[in-house]
Amino acid sequence: MEKAEFERVIRQIPIGACIIDVNCVITFANPAFSGGLTARNDHLIGENLLTVFSEQARFLRRKIDSVFVLKNSSFSYWQQRPHVFPMRSTRPITGDESQMYQNVQFMPITACDGEVSHVCIVVTDVTAEASYFMQQTDLKNELESEHQQLKKLHQELKIAQRQMLQSEKMASIGQLAAGVAHEINNPIGFVRSNLETLKDYSQKLMKTNETQKKIILKQAEPRFIALLEDVYEKNGIAFINEDLPELLNESLDGTERVRKIVSGLRDFAIQDDENWAEVNLCAEIDSALVVLENEIKYKAKTSVSLPDEAITFWAKPSAIRQLLFNIIVNALYAMQPMGLLSISCAYNESKDVLLTITDTGSGISPEDLVRIFDPFFTTKDIGQGTGLGLSEVYATVQEHHGQVNVSSELGKGSCFEFTFKKQK
Ligand SMILES: Nc1ncnc2c1ncn2[C@@H]1O[C@H](COP(=O)(O)OP(=O)(O)OP(=O)(O)O)[C@@H](O)[C@H]1O
Ligand SMILES: [Mg+2]
């Protein structure tokens, strides 16, 4: 290709090209380069590149030096440095943006001796690509933030649904419990009282029988004595005498257990008419710890953090006392042989009352965690626990329009957090 023809091509291509010598003096600039500049400059040839583009001088100097020294091309991409040369964009990116986004390549031009004599600077307009890329990035960020919002919403919805299910479940179980408690209360009452009478009767009968036997043994003819002993033997009277009091005592114990369950059920179901009062939570915690001192002594160290000010709220004193008992007793049971029981209470920023009871006990598995507030849910052995403790706690929280949150990890411990409104 002829030199003139080649020059014509260079002048016409829509890529900015400019050549400089070792002193950074501009020896060539095609129209795409000089014409694209925002500040028109017709006298680029013979000018020093670093003076013309003084704002970018340090950067240009570094790039050009690296080409002369390393004899390799050097690049500048729009993402790192979008506007090396102040040129008009071919396609505005935003309303106010008029600068061209550009990739710039610094290429070595070697002379016959193999040394780099000039550097050719090629400026490619990537405004369209950059625009597309940035739009996509904005879109991605928007989507990402929407996704995060949706995730948060979903989480909140899940919690609300769980709470709704729990309170619905509790409401229907509460009705059932009230009914069952009422139905069982009467029969268990008369069974117990009849058993007491039976115990009394049986003691009297046994005494009478004993006396009769003694008289007969002393005074009757031998054939009657033999007859009597035969009847005693055949009917196992000696065993009955031993077993009868035990049977009656066991039955009485059984009715006592049923009575306790029924009373627990009633506590859970019936919101009695006890008066509401200003309850001082710190004082209640203190007195619970005093009452449970003996239990605590062998099972846990305690760390109690109560503020100097009194933490008071409107509540049913005995229900709150019972709640503290149930939670502390559960915690002690879970910490065998020794653990740390931490109790704290405070006001939060919205002046609600916060009560936190933490133990380093056995922890609760995720499957059990959703069931602990259900009446009769217990992991204790038969006869050891009724499983009504936490359902009472839940009923108290509901009645006080409070909230309870439990977090637990198997083998590490559990944390019960309560929030109560200051006023009813
Ligand atoms: N702090 C705790 N650590 C580990 N498990 C707990 C804790 N609190 C409660 N649980 C679990 O929840 C179950 C139900 O507790 P809840 O107080 O209702 O009944 P219980 O303690 O088993 O019986 P009761 O209270 O009648 O003696 C317990 O059996 C236990 O499995
Ligand atoms: Mg319990």
UniProtKB/TrEMBL annotation:
Catalytic activity annotation: ATP + protein L-histidine = ADP + protein N-phospho-L-histidine
SUPFAM superfamilies, sorted: ATPase domain of HSP90 chaperone/DNA topoisomerase II/histidine kinase, Homodimeric domain of signal transducing histidine kinase, PYP-like sensor domain (PAS domain)
GO molecular function: kinase activity
Domain of life: Bacteria
Pfam families according to UniProt: HATPase_c, HisKA
PROSITE patterns listed in its UniProt record: HIS_KIN
This enzyme's EC code(s): 2.7.13.3
Positions of the Histidine kinase domain: 179-424
Keywords from the UniProt entry: Coiled coil, Kinase, Phosphoprotein, Transferase
Regions annotated as coiled coil: 133-170
CDD domains: HisKA
Name of the protein in question: histidine kinase
Source organism of the structure: Pseudoalteromonas neustonica
Taxonomic path: Bacteria, Pseudomonadati, Pseudomonadota, Gammaproteobacteria, Alteromonadales
